[in-house]
Amino acid sequence: MLQMKKLILLFFVLIFANFFACAQQKQTDNLIIVTLDGLRWHELFTGADSVLINDPKYSSDTQRVKDKYWAPTAIERRQKLFPFFWDVVNSLGQIHGNRDLGSKVNVMNNYRYSYPGYNEMFTGFPNDTTGKANSVEYPNKNSSVLEFINNLPDYKSKVAVFTSWNAFHAIFSEKRSGIFVNAGYDSLRFKSPAFELLNDMQWHVRNAGMPSNERSDMFTYYMAKEYIREFKPKVLHIGLVETDNFAHEGNYESTLNSANMADAWLADLWKMLQSMPEYKDRTTMLLLTDHGRGDKIKSEWKDHGININGADEIWFAAIGPGVRPLGEIKQPEQLYQAQLAQTIAALLGLTFTAEHPIEAPIKGL
Ligand SMILES: [Zn+2]
Predict the structure, then answer these.
(1) Across residues 215-229, what is the average pLDDT?
(2) For a pLDDT cut of 70, what percent of the chain falls above it?
(3) How far does residue 249's CA lie from ligand 1's centre (Å)?
(4) β 159-163/235-240 pair status
(5) Residue scoring higher pLDDT (334 or 207)
(6) Which among 90, 122, 224, 357 counts the fewest CB atoms within 10 Å?
């Protein structure tokens, strides 16, 4: 009898030991994080908006944009706009944030604009009032999970960032963190025909009149893709901005086009990763956004910020090792952007520590 009790005890000890080991277990070898700035959950889950797509104020040629993105049901519309999300991520990964089904993801910071959003996402610490600065001149005092990872011997020089917006030099405190950040119109110094061509092209585009603080997402994506091919980073952030820029301009057609283009790049990226032995079945992709936008007052779809109702409502998606194939989450839940930093660490089997508090990771991805 005593023997039996000992066996039962041993059984539970083993169960718990296994549970805790799993909590720290490495789920994936590589992590690619793609951010789509200010992309609303409304478009991701319900496709083109029936009011905005029919308003000539927001779509100069309403017929052209309807031909491309309109369908009678939300399921068909989102499929047209985001085929990679709804074909591939929905069957192999997870998509959170459909508030119509009760799946809620919110930012915790009060500002609801980009710098505080990226700070929250990558540091897990949303309550720093210095996050008010949306500025390229403002190096983040909070250390990020990417800085933490970059300081580990296994990941030294294996963490990189390619973004369209030049503020990421500051968001990731490039000088302190030592992370390789190519943001805005930064020259590429790598000597290969592809890099040299991309570099030449981006400067010509900029000189043709693009804003100086943000380059076209096209360059950011293809430079990042080339960097993966050439340097095989283990952790990479690709930051796209056009979904936010065109929305601020009130150009709904271009907003949809940029979202659709980003979806096509994600499909292209996933396909490339699955064709490379260093990445195939060893790479997790996290698809994230920094803030939401308005909707309750329809004209506020263009804006975000502290006074815009709904600009704290976001979404996220994930695909790859460490992510169960649950598809679109249809159960009520409440998740926060600040949980993503520790989730990034957990996927790599790490526990992120910093000089500031960090929100707990998302459980049960
Ligand atoms: Zn914005």
Answers:
(1) 96
(2) 92
(3) 10
(4) parallel
(5) 334
(6) 357
Is residue 146 pLDDT above 50, yes or no? yes
Which superfamily does 30-347 belong to? Alkaline Phosphatase, subunit A (3.40.720.10)
Sign of the dihedral defined by the CA atoms of residues 17, 23, 27, 29, in that order: negative
Distance from the alpha carbon of residue 131 to the mean position of ligand 1, in angstroms: 15
Q: How far is the CA of 129 from the centre of ligand 1 (A)?
A: 19
- Rounded to the nearest angstrom, the distance between the alpha carbon of 123 and the centre of ligand 1 is 20
Reported as a single tens digit per residue, the pLDDT across 109-133 is: 999 999 999 999 999 999 765 555 6
| Interval between CA 301 and ligand 1 midpoint (Å) | 11
Domain residue extents for the chain: 30-347
Per-residue pLDDT reduced to its tens digit, 277-290 = 999 999 999 999 99
What is the per-residue burial (b if ≥16 Cβ within 10 Å, else e) of 242-271?
bbbbbbeebbbbbbbbbbbbbbebbbebbe
Confidence (pLDDT) at 211: 75
Cα of 322 from ligand 1 centre, angstroms: 31
Ligand 1 centroid–CA 246 distance in Å is: 9
CB 177 within 8 A of CB 146: yes
Q: Please answer whether residues 259 and 39 qualify as being in contact, where contact means their C-beta atoms are separated by less than 8 angstroms.
A: yes
Interval between CA 130 and ligand 1 midpoint (Å): 18
Using CA atoms, how far apart are residues 323 and 220, in angstroms rounded to an integer?
26
Query: 208 pLDDT band (50/70/90 cuts)?
Result: confident
CA of 114 to the centre of ligand 1 (A): 6
DSSP secondary structure string, 176-238?
A: HH--EEEESSPPP---SHHHHHHHHHHHHHHHTT--TTB--HHHHHHHHHHHHHHH--SEEEE
Q: What is the pLDDT of residue 16?
A: 46
How many Å lie between the centroid of ligand 1 and the Cα of residue 138?
18
Give the Å distance between the CA of 135 and the centre of ligand 1.
Answer: 13
Token pair listed for 8: 């039962």
Q: How far, in Å, is the centroid of ligand 1 from the Cα of 102?
A: 26
What is the rounded CA–CA span in Å between residue 169 and residue 175? Answer: 8
Radius of gyration of the chain (CA): 21
